[in-house]
Amino acid sequence: MTGTNRKVGGRQEAVLKQMKGLGLRRQSRSYATNLHDIDSMSQLTCASDAPFEDTTEFGESTALPEVDVGEYSDASYSDEPSESTDSPSSSSSPDSPRYAFQSPKGLSQEDFEFLQAHGLEKCTPLKELGQGGYGSVDLVQVSLPSGRNFVAARKVIHSPLYAQPRYERELRGLQLCADCPFVVDIFASRITSDGQFEFLLEYAPNGTLHDMLKAMEQRRRGKEKLLMPVNRIQYYAACMLKGLQFIHQRGQAHRDVKPGNVLMAANGRPLLADTDAMDSVQVTKRAGTTSYQAPELWRATLQGPGYTTDKADMYAMGITLAEMAAYPAGGNGKLQQLKDDPAGCTPAYVPPELKDLLCGLLAPVAKRLSAEQAMAHKFFEGLDWEVLSEGPLGISVQLRQAPSFEMAAATAAGRAE
């Protein structure tokens, strides 16, 4: 059964009750029926349709010259365990690397220093946002010295596949993008005494782009039409391209671009997340999710001089754009056909400008568009790039808002009782 007649049960029903209990405004029933066991409402690196694959050799240099990390020395990775692995560390511990986290808007210096130093150890869980093979994500609140209750997402990683080098890489990637409004913010991080890796992140209450596309596919009911309006595709794609441009201009590649790694902020703005694969554009080893990897990554050692993996990010961006327009992953194989022959297999209902952009992003590496070239494409003609961070531009989008501080406090009090 489909649509509103489809029954929910088990985990979906529990999430539905949680959403209603917090007064979330989204149409929660249709959203809850589209949850997935691995990558729904989470901010994890779990794949939306294939496992994460990272074949980077930690012996390669991954310098981030423009990041202000204080005492932290970006030494080459090694397969040998580091000395700091044996003891817990945090973003504020004197024995761990010192990172200059970005202060959230509106926080006093005292509140921010408290959030950075004690946010993870003194936060109060409000509800679970997601769980997967790597760990879990909870909605938490932190009571600050000023009396303000700060709401954030706590990401906890406990998988043995996620070692300290990967933690450091994710943390440095988030640090690099601290000034970019199209990448999720980080407020604190630490390694606990039992070896768990924790991050205190910006809370994005509207799930992931992957969740949104699956729900839209269900509502489309097999009709031959765009998955969402053109102006909405234009806005989401523009925000993602701005985020990728920011990363690429700093000599880095995200290396795991996909809808499951795009969070939807409270104002509807897409946020690139999960930077644990981010590395120098010079590192051409395969990484990320297999079905989003550019073809040349499977023969990276054969690439000519000057090849960098920002081109691979653009290919993954092309697949993501194809999913936004026509075929969410996990469908009937038409997405793969479009990847193999974008010019011949793009549906007729896709506007010519969007089709041309898709072909440019999915082109062979020598002809593939860069982030700057894609942003200059005629598909974005007339778009005001300076105000993208303010949210959807003239787009009617029903959004869930982050819980207010008062609501968060009431929820925590109810849990305590």
TrEMBL record:
PROSITE patterns for the chain: PROTEIN_KINASE_DOM
UniProt entry keywords in alphabetical sequence: ATP-binding, Kinase, Nucleotide-binding, Serine/threonine-protein kinase, Transferase
Annotated spans, Disordered: 48-103
Bias (Low complexity): 76-97
GO molecular function per UniProt: ATP binding; protein serine/threonine kinase activity
Matches recorded under SUPFAM superfamilies: Protein kinase-like (PK-like) (SSF56112)
Protein name: Protein kinase domain-containing protein
